[in-house]
């Protein structure tokens, strides 16, 4: 399926960037304020990873699977009101997608072309009507190359690590906590940036937004202003 941008009735906004840059939370709030849907593409990669882990297929075998075998794992994304619901085998999934087990394997899964092909059509179908804010690594570069507004979020590594720790409930992270979390994030960034298929990269026509010193409200407002400016 191509990115059928001619048939859209509303805009598509893409937010790409490395782990912890604030993409998902910003995208969700921008979508809420604009009355658009939010596509968290990372959740789909995480759902496929969860499905593989639950099906007991050893990681060494993932690379042997073709697109058809990946599809058989039955990951779906379905509109429910203003939400896009992600399911695995018909079961709605949420918190379990962010487990350590999934997080440590998802970048490997996302480097496999069969996994990317399997999820590409799901993502484009979710955006077929427009009025969508999509966040991930390749939303503006590969999945929705004709998006109306593309944003690329960055933030200093230490700040991204601090945010991740706070999201996980660590109120005052120590220097050691920040250092070890930075190493974990940097490893995943490297994996995502250096892979052959759909690497993390700023699309040429994307607006660069450095969120290191921005408040959440500033981030949301900056993206909404870009959308209102088109
Ligand atoms: O929230 P966080 O930035 O930690 O990650 P995520 O958005 O949930 O994405 C998890 C992983 O999925 C990333 O590290 C990538 O390996 C992969 N991913 C991808 O390859 N392409 C996307 N469009 C979105 C996620």
How would you sum up this structure, described in words?
- There is one protein chain.
- This protein has 230 residues and is α/β, with parallel strands linked by helices.
- It contains nine helices and eight strands.
- It has helices spanning 23-34, 41-55, 67-71, 100-110, 113-126, 139-143, 157-167, 175-194, 216-228; strands at residues 12-16, 37-40, 75-80, 83-88, 91-92, 132-136, 149-154, 207-210.
- The protein has a five-stranded parallel sheet. A three-stranded antiparallel sheet has the order 3-4-5.
- The two termini are 26 Å apart.
- The model has no long low-confidence stretch (mean pLDDT 94).
- The protein binds cytidine-5'-diphosphate.
- Cytidine-5'-diphosphate is lined by residues 19, 24, 41-42, 45-46, 106-107, 110, 136-139, 188, 192.
- Residues 19, 24, 41-42, 45-46, 106-107, 110, 136-139, 188, 192 line the site of cytidine-5'-diphosphate.
Which features does this protein show?
230 residues; alpha/beta; Rossmann fold; 3-stranded antiparallel sheet; 17% strand; globular; binds cytidine-5'-diphosphate
């Amino acid at each position: 399926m191509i990115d059928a941008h001619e048939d859209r009735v509303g805009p598509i906004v893409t937010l790409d960037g490395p782990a912890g840059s604030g993409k998902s939370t910003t995208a969700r709030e921008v979508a809420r304020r604009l009355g658009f849907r939010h596509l968290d593409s990372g959740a789909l990669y995480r759902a496929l990873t969860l499905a593989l882990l639950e099906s007991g297929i050893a990681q060494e075998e993932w690379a042997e699977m073709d697109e058809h075998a990946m599809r058989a794992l039955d990951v779906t994304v379905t509109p429910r009101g203003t939400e896009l619901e992600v399911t695995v085998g018909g079961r709605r999934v949420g918190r379990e997608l962010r487990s350590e087990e999934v997080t440590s394997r998802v970048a490997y899964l996302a480097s496999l072309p069969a996994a990317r092909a399997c999820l590409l059509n799901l993502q484009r179908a979710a955006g077929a009507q427009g009025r969508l804010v999509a966040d991930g690594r390749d939303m503006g570069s590969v999945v929705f190359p004709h998006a109306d507004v593309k944003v690329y979020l960055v933030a200093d590594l230490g700040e991204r690590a601090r945010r991740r720790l706070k999201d996980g409930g660590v109120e005052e992270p120590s220097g050691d906590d920040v250092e070890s979390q930075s190493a974990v994030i940097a490893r995943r960034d490297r994996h995502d940036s250096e892979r052959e298929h759909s690497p993390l990269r700023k699309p040429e026509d994307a607006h660069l937004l450095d969120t290191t010193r921005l408040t959440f409200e500033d981030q949301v407002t900056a993206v909404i202003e870009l959308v209102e400016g088109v």
